[in-house]
Design goal:
This protein is mostly helical and 324 residues long. 66% of the residues lie in helices and 2% in strands. The structure holds Phenylacetyl coenzyme A.
Length: 324
C-alpha cells in the first residue's frame, strides 16, 4: 500500500514555485498571492520601519515651522512636512496589506520596540539644518528609494513612485536653502557649512551597515525587495553629492574623499559605525525626545480617532437603514 500524499507540502511547493517564477520574471507579488512567511515578515519589518521614519522624520523639521525666516519659507517647509505625513500613511497602508494593523505598528513605535531611521535622532539647532536635511537626507532617501519603486511587492513599489516624486522636490528645496545661504553673508556661509559638517556622516550611515555586516541584504536582494546593496547605494550617493557640493561652494567634511581612476568611484573615509549602532540602540542625541513627543501626540490624538470611529459606525448603521 502506498502512503497518502502530503497535500499541504505539495501545495506549498507549487505555491513557492509560482512565487519564485513571478519574482524571477519581474512580476509583482500582490496581497492576494501566496508568499513565503519570511518574505511577508521582511516586508512588514522594512515597510513599517520606513513608515515610522517618515512620521518621526517630521519632528526635526517641525521644530523650524514657527521660526522659518519668511512666509514663503514657512509655506514650503509646511508643505514638505505634510508630504512626510502622507508618505507615512501610504507606507502604513502598504504594510497593512500584509496582515499587520496600524495600531500594532504604532504601539511598537511608541513602546520604543520598532526601529526608524537613525538620521532622525540628531538635533536641528539652526535654519541651515533645513537645507542640510533637504539636500543630504532627502538626497539619500531618493537614492535609496528609486530602486524600491521596482520592489517585487506591488503595494510598496507603487507607494514609492509617488514618494520619490515628492522627495525630489524636497531635495531641491534643501539645495536651494543652502545655495541662498552660501550666496549670503560670511555668517550665513558658516552656518551652512556647519550644518553640512553635522549631517554629512549621519546621512551616509542612513544606507545601513556595510555589506559584510548587513544580515538582511542577501535575502532581500534575492527576493528583489532591495535591488542594490547598502554600500553600492552609499557610493552612488557620494558620486551625486560631489558635483553639487562644488556648485554650492560647500566642502564635504571628509579629508579622504578622492576620485579613484581605477575603481571609477570615490574613495572615502571611515564612517563611525560605533556611533551608528549606539543610535540604533536608542542612545543617539534625540532618541528619547523623539519617542516621547510621538507618544504624547498619539495620546492627544485619541479623541480624534474615537470621533472618527464613532462617525464611521453611525454611517454604517445609516447605510444598513438602522438609523433614520
Ligand atoms: N537606521 O541588514 P540591514 C526619509 C537596521 S525615509 C536605523 O542592512 P535592511 C524621508 C536594519 O533595520 C528614511 N536602522 O537591513 C525623509 C536592520 O535591523 P533589523 C528611511 C537601520 O533592512 C527625509 C539592521 O540595521 N528609509 O529619509 C538603518 O536590509 C527627510 C541591519 O541592516 C527607509 O526606511 C538606519 N539607517 O537595510 C523624512 C528606506 N540601517 O530590522 C523626513 C527603506 C539599517 O533587522 C525628512 N528601507 N538599519 O532589526 C531600506 O531600504 C532598508 O531597510 C535599509 C536597511 C537600507 C534602511
Amino acid at each position: 500500500m502506498t502512503a497518502p500524499a502530503d497535500l499541504s507540502v505539495v501545495d506549498d511547493a507549487d505555491a513557492l514555485a509560482r512565487f519564485d517564477e513571478l519574482v524571477a520574471n519581474e512580476q509583482r507579488i500582490e496581497p492576494r498571492d501566496w508568499m513565503p512567511e519570511a518574505y511577508r515578515k521582511t516586508l512588514i519589518r522594512q515597510i513599517s520601519q520606513h513608515a515610522h521614519s517618515e512620521i518621526i522624520g517630521m519632528q526635526p523639521e517641525g521644530n523650524w515651522i514657527t521660526r522659518a525666516p519668511s512666509l514663503k519659507r514657512k509655506a514650503i517647509l509646511m508643505a514638505k512636512v505634510q508630504d512626510e505625513a502622507g508618505h507615512g500613511l501610504y507606507l502604513y497602508s502598504a504594510a497593512q496589506t500584509l496582515g499587520i494593523t496600524r495600531d500594532t505598528m504604532m504601539q511598537q513605535l511608541i513602546d520604543g520596540k520598532a526601529k526608524y531611521s537613525s538620521i532622525f535622532n540628531y538635533p536641528t539647532p539652526t535654519w541651515a539644518d533645513m537645507g542640510a536635511i533637504g539636500w543630504l537626507v532627502d538626497g539619500a532617501a531618493i537614492v535609496n528609494q528609486v530602486p524600491l519603486c521596482r520592489c517585487s511587492y506591488g503595494p510598496y513599489g507603487r507607494a514609492m513612485v509617488r514618494v520619490c516624486k515628492e522627495e525630489s522636490f524636497h531635495q531641491r528645496q534643501g539645495f536651494e536653502i543652502l545655495l541662498t545661504l552660501m550666496q549670503g553673508t560670511e555668517e550665513q556661509r558658516e552656518m551652512a557649512q556647519d550644518a553640512v559638517n553635522r549631517w554629512y556622516w549621519p546621512s551616509l550611515a542612513m544606507f545601513g551597515p556595510p555589506d559584510d555586516q548587513s544580515p538582511n541584504s542577501a535575502q532581500s536582494m534575492t527576493w528583489k525587495i532591495k535591488r542594490f546593496s547598502n554600500d553600492d547605494l552609499r557610493q552612488r550617493f557620494v558620486g551625486m553629492l560631489v558635483p553639487q557640493a562644488e556648485i554650492l561652494g560647500i566642502t564635504l567634511p571628509d579629508p579622504d574623499l578622492r576620485w579613484n581612476d581605477e575603481t571609477q568611484s570615490y574613495d572615502m573615509g571611515e564612517i563611525d559605525w560605533d556611533e551608528f549602532f549606539e543610535v540604533l540602540k536608542g542612545n543617539g542625541p534625540c532618541n528619547a525626545e523623539r519617542i516621547e513627543r510621538r507618544r504624547t501626540a498619539h495620546e492627544e490624538g485619541a479623541w480624534v480617532r474615537e470621533a472618527a470611529a464613532e462617525y464611521a459606525r453611525k454611517q454604517a448603521l445609516c447605510a444598513e437603514g438602522q438609523v433614520a
